[in-house]
Design goal:
The protein is of the alpha+beta class. The chain is about 30% helix and about 25% strand. The structure holds flavin-adenine dinucleotide.
C-alpha cells in the first residue's frame, strides 16, 4: 500500500521511481480496509477519489453493540465525517484499494519476483541485491517492505516485537452466503469483555461482507497475511455472541488469521540515502484502522520533501521527511497499541470536542497534502 502510494506520489512530482516487489503476482487477499478522511485526502490528490467512491462502501453509522444482548452501546453518525474532516470515510476490499494504487503506476516500473536480501550505500547512491542474484542501483531507497522489513533489519538489526496475546481472524465472502441476513448500512463492532468482532460490507453494491476479530490466543509461529484460520476454533470463540454474529460466522467459507504484535515507536527511520515508510517503521495494531492510512500519508510527505531535490541533497531531504512524519505516526502507533474501547465514541459535534487523545479529530482532519513541512 505505502510503496505504491509513494511511487505514485513521487512520479506526480516528476521523480523517477522503480518498485521492487518480492511477490510473483498480486492476489486479492480476503480482507477489508477502512480508508478514513485523512487517507482519502491523499487519494484525492493522487486522482483515486472518484474510483474509490464508485466501488467502496460508505457506511451511515458506526455502531458498538453488546456481544450477547445486541443492545446498542453507542452509535457514531458517519454522515458528519465528510463535513467535519473534509473527505469521506470509505470501507473497501484491500484488493480493490491495491488495484487502484497499482493503476497509477506503469507496469514497466513494477518489478515482481524481486525479493530484496541486502543493500549497501555510499555517499553517492545505494545498491540493492535480490534473492535471484540480480542487483539494481538508485540514488535513494525507500523500504516500504512491511512489518518484517528487510531494509529495517539491514539498517538497525533484528527487532523484538511483543505478541499481544491476540489474533485477528479475517474473511471477505459473498453476501449471498448470509441468506436473509442484512447487516445494514453500518459498521458494527460487537464487544465482549475480552474479545470483539467488527463486521461491514466492503463494496458499494453490498455484495461482499467482511469481518475482523480480536480474540485471545496462543502465539502462532508466523506473522503473515496467508495463515489459514480454523473455522471451528473461530466459531467456538464467538459461541456466546448474538445470533447475528453467529450467522455471519456460520456463513463464512474460510478465514485468514493474523497474530497481533505491538512495537514501540522506532527512534530512527533511516540512515543516509535509505529510509523506511509505513509498517516498516511504524507498524501498529489494527485497532484504529490507521496502518495503511499513515503509510499513505508518509508517501505524500516523502514526495513533497523530495520534490526538486538534487541527488547530493537527498540525505537531508529524507531527514526532513522523518522529522515531519515521526511525531504523528508515533502518536497514532502508541494510541493504537492501547486498543481503547472508547475510540471513535466521541461525538464530533459536541461543544467540547477539543483535541484530546480519544477524540478522532486530530487523526482525521490532518491533510498530508498541505501539512507544513517544517
Ligand atoms: C487485522 C488488520 C486490519 C487492518 N485494518 C486496517 C484498516 O482498516 N485501515 C488501515 O489503514 N490499515 C489497516 N491495517 C493495517 C494495514 O494493513 C497495514 O498497516 C498496511 O498494509 C501497511 O502497508 P505497507 O505498505 O507499509 O506494508 P504492506 O502492505 O505489508 O506491504 C509491504 C510490501 O513489501 C513487500 N515485501 C516485503 N519484504 C520484501 C522484500 N524483502 N523484497 C521485496 N518486497 C518485499 C511485500 O510483499 C508487500 O507487498 C490492518 C491490519 C490488520 C492486521
Amino acid at each position: 500500500m505505502g510503496g505504491l502510494a509513494a511511487a505514485a506520489a513521487l512520479r506526480q512530482r516528476g521523480i523517477s521511481v522503480q518498485v521492487y516487489e518480492q511477490a510473483a503476482r498480486f492476489l486479492r487477499i480476503g480482507a477489508g480496509i477502512q480508508m478514513s478522511a485523512n487517507a482519502m485526502k491523499v487519494h484525492r490528490m493522487l486522482g483515486l477519489e472518484e474510483r474509490l467512491r464508485k466501488t467502496a462502501f460508505q457506511h451511515r453509522a458506526r455502531r458498538h453493540r453488546y456481544f450477547d444482548s445486541g443492545a446498542y452501546e453507542s452509535e457514531f453518525d458517519m454522515s458528519v465525517v465528510e463535513r467535519k474532516f473534509g473527505a469521506p470515510h470509505l470501507m473497501m476490499h484491500r484488493g480493490d484499494l491495491h488495484a487502484a494504487l497499482l493503476s497509477l503506476v506503469p507496469d514497466d516500473i513494477v518489478h515482481l519476483n524481486k525479493k530484496l536480501v541486502n543493500l549497501e550505500q555510499d555517499a553517492n547512491g545505494v545498491t540493492l541485491m535480490f534473492a535471484d542474484g540480480t542487483r539494481a542501483t538508485a540514488s535513494a531507497v525507500i523500504g516500504a517492505d512491511g512489518v518484517h522489513s528487510v531494509v529495517r533489519a539491514q539498517l538497525f538489526g533484528a527487532e523484538q516485537p511483543h505478541y499481544t496475546g491476540r489474533i485477528a481472524y479475517r474473511s471477505t465472502f459473498p453476501s449471498t452466503l448470509l441468506g436473509d441476513l442484512d447487516i445494514g448500512d453500518i459498521s458494527t463492532k460487537w464487544w465482549a469483555p475480552d474479545r470483539h468482532i467488527v463486521i461491514y460490507y466492503v463494496t458499494k453494491q453490498k455484495d461482499e461482507v467482511y469481518f475482523t476479530t480480536s480474540i485471545p490466543a496462543a502465539k502462532p509461529d508466523l506473522e503473515s497475511w496467508s495463515l489459514k484460520g480454523d473455522l471451528a476454533e473461530l466459531r467456538s470463540a464467538f459461541a456466546a455472541f448474538h445470533p447475528e454474529v453467529r450467522q455471519v460466522l456460520a456463513a463464512c467459507p474460510d478465514a485468514n488469521k493474523w497474530p497481533i504484535f505491538d512495537r514501540d515507536p522506532q527512534e530512527q527511520w533511516g540512515v543516509g540515502r535509505v529510509y523506511l515508510l509505513g509498517d516498516a517503521c511504524h507498524p501498529m495494531t489494527p485497532y484504529m484502522a490507521q496502518g495503511a492510512a499513515t503509510a499513505i500519508e508518509d508517501a505524500v510527505i516523502l514526495a513533497r520533501c523530495l520534490e526538486g531535490v538534487a541527488s547530493a541533497d537527498l540525505p537531508s531531504a529524507l531527514q526532513q521527511y522523518e522529522r515531519v512524519r515521526k511525531p504523528r505516526a508515533s502518536r497514532i502507533q502508541s494510541l493504537s497499541n492501547l486498543n481503547k474501547r472508547n475510540w471513535m465514541r466521541v461525538d464530533p459535534n459536541a461543544p467540547d470536542a477539543a483535541v484530546k487523545e480519544n477524540d478522532p479529530g486530530w487523526v482525521y482532519e490532518y491533510d498530508a497534502c498541505t501539512a507544513p513541512l517544517q
